[in-house]
């Protein structure tokens, strides 16, 4: 079985992820932009039993738009977030795709929060499902704090 290892920048905190991720996605939300320091975030998700976190970490919690809490685990030394979880996805752990430092990592199938998308970005691929909110079947009661901009509706 494939095992991939995500590491913080200094290498002290690592997440070993067993098997293929259940979901690979890109999120354009403002919180993900702030977390990554980039224009969007890419992440992969596994059931928590398939992820082994080793090394020292700190946690930070915030309340998402959905009203649910999200918990981030990051290296106290270099500050990189290596895993995070959200109450909306019980039993699942997300790992920032960049932490694998692997350009051959499976591409995203979902692009969410596209109403926050920088106009110069695009998530390519015929298979990609685009949406302007979090995935509705996974977050049936998710709500948005601001209206969705016209022209960026889910397709
Ligand atoms: Zn580190
Ligand atoms: Zn996001």
Query: What do the pLDDT scores average to?
Result: 88
CATH class label: Mainly Beta
Number of helices: 1
What is the domain total for the residues?
1
**Total beta strand runs:** 11
Shape verdict: globular
Tell me the strand percentage band.
25-35%
Summarize the model shown.
Helices cover 5% and strands 35% of the residues. With 155 residues, the protein is mainly β.
Question: Any key phrases for this structure?
Answer:
155 residues, mainly beta, Metal Binding Protein, Guanine Nucleotide Exchange Factor, Chain A, 5-stranded mixed sheet, 1 helix, disordered C terminus, binds zinc ion
Overall description:
The protein has 155 residues and is mainly β. The chain contains one helix and eleven strands. The chain is globular, with a radius of gyration of 15 Å. Residues 135-155 have low confidence and may be disordered. The N and C termini lie far apart (35 Å). It has a single domain (3-130), classed as Metal Binding Protein, Guanine Nucleotide Exchange Factor, Chain A, CATH 2.170.150. The strands form three sheets. Strands 9-4-3-10-11 form a five-stranded mixed β-sheet.
Topology:
Layout: E1 3-7, E2 14-18, E3 23-27, H1 30-36, E4 41-47, E5 51-54, E6 58-63, E7 69-74, E8 81-86, E9 92-96, E10 110-112, E11 129-130
Parallel strand pairs: 3-10, 10-11
Antiparallel strand pairs: 1-2, 2-5, 3-4, 4-9, 6-7, 7-8
The structure holds zinc ion (2 copies).
């Amino acid at each position: 079985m494939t095992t991939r290892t995500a590491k913080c920048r200094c290498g002290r905190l690592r997440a070993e992820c067993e098997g293929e991720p259940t979901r690979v996605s890109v999120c354009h939300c403002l919180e993900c932009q702030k977390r990554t320091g980039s224009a969007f975030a890419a992440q992969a998700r596994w059931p928590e039993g398939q992820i082994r976190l080793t090394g020292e970490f700190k946690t930070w919690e915030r309340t998402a738009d959905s009203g649910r809490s999200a918990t981030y685990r990051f290296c106290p030394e270099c500050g990189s977030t290596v895993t995070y979880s959200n109450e909306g996805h019980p039993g699942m752990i997300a790992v920032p795709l960049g932490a694998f430092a692997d350009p051959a990592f499976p591409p995203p199938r979902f692009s969410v929060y596209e109403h926050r998308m920088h106009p110069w970005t695009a998530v390519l691929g015929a298979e990609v499902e685009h949406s302007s909110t979090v995935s509705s079947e996974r977050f049936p009661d998710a709500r948005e704090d601001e209206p969705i901009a016209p022209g960026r509706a889910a397709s």
